[in-house]
Fold these 4 entries.
Entry 1:
Amino acid sequence: MTLLPDSAVRPGRLAVGVVLPSLTVQREQKLPLTEAARHAELAGLDLVAHRGGPVSGTPSLDAAVAVAAAAAATERITVVGEACAPALLPPVRAAEQVASLQYVADGRLVLAVGTDAGHERWAAAGVPYDERERRTDAVLRLLPRLLAGERVALPYEPGYAAAESAPAVPMPPVWIGGTSRTAVRCAARLGDGWFPSLASAAEVAEGTVQLAELAAASGRPAPAVVVGTTGALGGEPGLPGRADIAADLAAAHGGRPGRFADVPVTGGCREAAEHLHRYCGAGVTRVLVDIAGGDWRNQVDLLADVRDLLR
């Protein structure tokens, strides 16, 4: 089994996925993580993602455990480990973890890498905060070689090492998360994808131009573009509207609600499909939606209907 390649996403079409529910939603809706992953797959979505661990800043399952559980519970769907921070681990340990996840996922794993973990997390791992980007670059350069069974020189320790206990697996695709210039540069140099979240279609289009220019300067093809967004679909009583979601995003991330006014995916399936289709013009091939309210299972079913309209 392999993940959906870029060539399988036709121009003007989007592959659609969902972020798995938070611990709070799992408890309130009696929805185990494994059941949620299976539900998304059976509904016909293309991807599921787990967001958590060092970058999320909120209580969550251990990222590797959650991704492994979602992968083991499904057969077809691409499994995205969102907000991974491999530089928090020694390179060999990171390689062993990635190889194990890729093996359990049967080749369906994607690593969405971020560097925004709080100071405390990096300090606890013995990694100076100011070195997080440089160390992330170094680990991403080493991972393919370690997964291939090579002995490599360690960048921050004396000697050589190999991931001898890791299963032999292909390197999973790496998506670099973030909208900053630094994130775009890293994606252009080392990523298979650029993964901006909570950005409008216009902002993504601007970043895509920079991405292509930087990739060309590095002698690489432009990486795929994958967007993370949020929303609530349909007319279920008590659902947050676009303005409510934008206000919540502003409170969580800073800035005025108007900054996020074009981000939320709301309304009926056709309205939501039209909203997401705007990203196609920005070169986006995949979109991951974080459910902002309502019954999670029902929201996934509606999102699958939106996906059908986008195919």
Note: The radius of gyration is 19 Å.
Entry 2:
Amino acid sequence: MRCLTTDPASEPSKILYKRCVFDLRTGEQRMEEAPCRNLEDVLGGFGRSFQDLAERKIENAYCDENPLIVNTGLLTGSSAMTGMRTYFSGYSPIKGSKAGLPAAMWSTGSGKFGAKFKWTGLDELIFENRSEQPVYVVIREAEDGPKVELKPAEHLLGLSTHDKIMALQMEYTDAHFAAIGQAGENWQNNFMGAVALSTENQLKEKEDKSRFAGRGGMGSLMGYKNVLALVAQSSDKLKPLSDAVKKVNLNVIKGGGSARIQPISRGGGGGTWAAYDVLQAFHAVPINNFRPQGNALPEQLFRENVEKEYDIKSQACYRCGITCHNNVSEKNADGSKGEFLAKFDYEPLNLLGTNVGIHDAGQAAHLIQLGDNYGMDAISLGVTISYVLSYNERHPEKNILNGATFGDYEKIRELIIQAGEGKLPEVGHGSMRLSQRLDETSYAYHVKGLE
């Protein structure tokens, strides 16, 4: 961004952001400096994107007129500690109005991709139309400004989110990546595709520790456009910390909002996983499709019980001092760290664990890892599966799909695999559409199609 004023709130048009509009059908692109229309434009992210989306009449998310907008926030790539967000916006394939029209939606994730994207000199990338062939997109810095180019991506087809990122890392140095999995590639039958964003821990340790822009099926929209991945290649451009920013960053680390999710070693609760302990005090942890039973079953996935059998390591996103990740790995016989399994956050752990009747930490971790690698939103995936299990429990004589029931790990795993491979639209299209088809909507938990 280029600032020509000291008062952006009253003179937003004197803030210019670099935008590339890329036509995937023709390969033509328009690189421009656009003046901000208002303060929302200055702040960036979905506040800017939604103004552009509101100007379009979209009746089907999978149409060429539906753009995929990739941008960053004002603080992304700055010395502000938590300035790491990348935003993906468009009309959602999974969420819509009661009249059947798709809803404008945004999804965001952290990691270092956003900073690398910003450091190329680009603030926003708008994908128009659709590529006829699978491609990935390289955004790189150059002496005369950011460059955007398409590359053939047949070699990436069928790879998981993590494997796509690892393959691209072999080709591009000083870069970070955003990729869809097989779910996004199978966009016709899976509306809950997510976008995986690479992290420093992932690239250094070669373990699947992505962050995700998961909500609303933006990975499926990316798959519809035949864009399998993005590469942001740039040197790091961090500026020295000023005293004022140091003070703000310190307040973020020690303030009340983040203190509760700091690692236990620092007096925090250990990430969002700590919500289990808080909710269980009131027997409010969702079990078996959001039906708490007033028993101790959720306590099997309390951290204190999981760490008896598994290695748990707290890690942070790039340059973040909150350190809220809880990376769960196998524990070797000598007590050392074994194979990495998954990152435990409250929502994936609950919705692919306790809420589908899985109370074994290892099994829950494998289900979370499967969903991540196929590139599916854990919330939509878990809630839709819990609906299937609930339906089968209520109809023992006419089970649907593979007959999976609560706690049946192998069959739940099979549902995730089939949905991720595009073979199970009943799950991939979400709980609203499935419940409407079955004419039993009262226990399908969603808002306008979005779980």
Note: The mean pLDDT is 94.
Entry 3:
Amino acid sequence: MLLDKEKLLMLETKANQLRHKTIDTVVDAGSGHLGGALSMIDAATLLYYQVMNINLDDPDWEDRDRFVMSKGHAGIGLITIFADLGWVPEEDLKTFNHTGSKYGIHLDSNVVPGVDASTGSLGHGLSLSLGMALASKQLKKDYYTYCMLGDGECQEGSVWEAAMAISHLYKEKQLKLITMVDRNKAQIDGETEDIMSLEPFQDKWTAFGFHAETIDGHDFETMAKSIDDAKKRTDKPTCIILDTVKGKGV
């Protein structure tokens, strides 16, 4: 997937617009997990505006690519994308995390169009993604599933259980599943390496049978190439570790 200058400018501009809207929405609400939303906006922008097969007229189109925001507290970054795509009314952003609103900090897939999984309790999104990838084969569908993990989330044992299962099943089932980790190096109680060290992080994913690589999570061209390469890789699953800045753009 080559990004020409026009596409690259569009993605950079769109990501900046979404950052502004995300900040405005959190400020209006008086609450929200801003840092982790801003760190993954570039990757999410690339997915929704360039990579993923979606239907702008039907966010729940059955043949769409799936995106699981396993780090559910970053949902504010998703809802601003959905408003921009026209899946939710722009004016609804003003109700974010207000009493009675259907748009809480953790987005509900039963209520919000375009949300593929209700997440929030960390550590479960990768297992959900595996289930979706297996379902696509069972249903003879051709969609990809993308999972965005947080790095602090990877202190949960359930992440590694899912990784082990994905590695075991990937080649046999020819799964269309790509794992991404927002490695912004901070969590709610401090820096990840102070709370519970993850390093050598890339080596851990490699040990679980993944092709793992660490790239600039704010570089659209690099991310696009890594996703392209992951789609061509049939012998093992891919984990793309996105080196990001928490609160990017502030």
Note: The chain has eight helices and seven strands.
Entry 4:
Amino acid sequence: MFSIGKSSKHPKEAAMLINFLLNSKEGVEALKLERGVPLSKVAVSQLRESGAIQDSDPAVSGLKLALSLPHAISASPYFDDPQIVVLFQDAIQNIDYGKKTVQEVAADFQRQGDRILKRAMR
């Protein structure tokens, strides 16, 4: 992330430099993927044309996946239920310590989570 300090003596010029680096063809080509996949559509297009970005790159596919997910999460009072919190912590530990696969943990979490929520919602 680039920023301009509030005490900068040349904020206009600094803004012009950042704009150049992030949006001009020369600036985008100079930075390429040094700062990750750019969020500017123009920059992504230029880097695709030059071959610097490929859809098979993990960073690109990860960004696409993240952008495809819902951006708003509705809050639920059940998120803070102590039993759900413990279930979540146990799930993370089982994965971290290799006791269960992600698929096994997901199935257990759904089964046990449904049971906890049914009791809590009575």
Note: The mean pLDDT is 89.
